[in-house]
Amino acid sequence: xxxxxxxxxxxxxxxxxxxxxxxxxxxxxxxxxxxxxxxxxxxxxxxxxxxxxxxxxxxxxxxxxxxxxxxxxxxxxxxxxxxxxxxxxxxxx
Length: 93
Hints:
The protein contains 4 helices and no strands.
């Protein structure tokens, strides 16, 4: 599926799959709340954030400028999904 036609549900599913495949999640990420802090839950550390950024840029075809690498954008599944959706919308305009 091309990145620019990805739905919010698809984006969330792919983010969760990435987290489950790349970080130690006992339940495959199913128990991770959409708004749960990934750093406070111990899912992401600084290296994990870099891996997440590379995944988002490669998978969704958006660039993440340094000034956007903030918890407000990348510290929970829902924040990541919202950020990707905003970047994709900007890319389409």
